[in-house]
Amino acid sequence: MVDWFKRNKTGFVGNIKKEIPDGLWIKCPKCSEILYKKAIEENFWICSKCRYHFRMPSTEYVKIIFDDDYEEFNKSIRSSDPLNFKDSKKYIDRLKTAHNKTQLNDAIITVFGKINSKEVVAAIMDFRFVGGSMGSVVGEKILVAIDKAREKKCPFIIVSSSGGARMQEGILSLMQMAKTSAKLAQFAEEGGLYISILTDPTTGGTSASYAMLGDINIAEPGALIGFAGARVIKQTIGQDLPEGFQRAEFVQEKGFIDIICERTEMKNTLSRIMVFFG
User: Fold this and answer.
1) Are 261 and 218 in contact (CB under 8 A)?
2) CA 88 from centroid of its chain's CA atoms
């Protein structure tokens, strides 16, 4: 009998073996649709079926919101091990692994360019680098970016994507909350416009500092936004949490978010805001 079908690791195929290269397809975590990766990238990393917003590299976010002519600055600064963390070697190895994976020196990049011909400075976080955790480098790069916005007299944007403070840097990481908040207050006193964009996830020390301090706070649809995790909160208060708790729509309903904006409209939304505020 002819062996018309056989099973291999790629599924049932005919008598001609077909190999599917890894990484070409992505399963949507919301609707379970199997999506072609290249099509996702061309669609702003949004599911074509349910509009779920995938987490995306910081370099891709730059391409979405900036005009073609932009420059990254302050690239060379990188984390060390300032507190000689207990598992120091593991921390250093983790930083090296994150660098090799992302080609970034830390969890944030800073960019100067134009959005619809209007000059702007932006700091864009990257969850791929140690969970987008906020360490001393993230805080320092944000400060340098704010100073550049002050120098250029242009708006400042932070795109947050973070699990919170970086535990391996302890108190130095927590200090970045006060450090960045104080610098943003100085920027506001000088009349600077600060727009905060909250993507999935924005939690912990990031949400407790610069992520929620925007003159305008914008969130992507369905983004997880909060401080402590839902499980911790539930155990603390001893009550069930409402449906959609800590999602962008719930947070907006409670008054913490001004606008929920799809990624496809983000650039034009930012442009309109900047025009409105002059």
Assistant:
1) yes
2) 26
Q: Is 56-276 CATH 3.40.50.1820?
A: no
> Does the pTM exceed 0.85?
yes
Q: Exposed/middle/buried for 207, CB within 10 Å: 0-12, 13-18, 19+?
A: buried
SS3 83: coil
pLDDT at residue 6, rounded to an integer: 52
Residue 220, helix vs strand vs coil: coil
- The residue length of the chain stands at 278
What's the CA gap between 203 and 227, in Å, rounded?
5
* 271: three-class secondary structure by DSSP: helix
pLDDT in tens, 11-68: 545 554 445 456 799 999 999 999 999 999 999 999 999 999 999 999 999 999 999 9
Helices (H), 131-262: 136-152, 170-189, 204-207, 230-237, 248-253
State how far the Cα of 193 lies from the Cα of 92, in Å rounded to an integer.
37
Q: How far is CA 100 from CA 81, 97, 106, 132, 219, in A?
A: 18, 5, 11, 15, 30
User: For residue 84, what pLDDT is reported?
Assistant: 84
What is the share, in percent, of the chain residues with pLDDT greater than 70? 92
CA 155, chain centre distance (Å):
19
Closest CA to 157 of 43, 248, 64, 224: 64
In the chain, where the domains are located: 1-54, 56-276
- Outline where 53-208 has alpha helix (H): 58-65, 88-102, 136-152, 170-189, 204-207
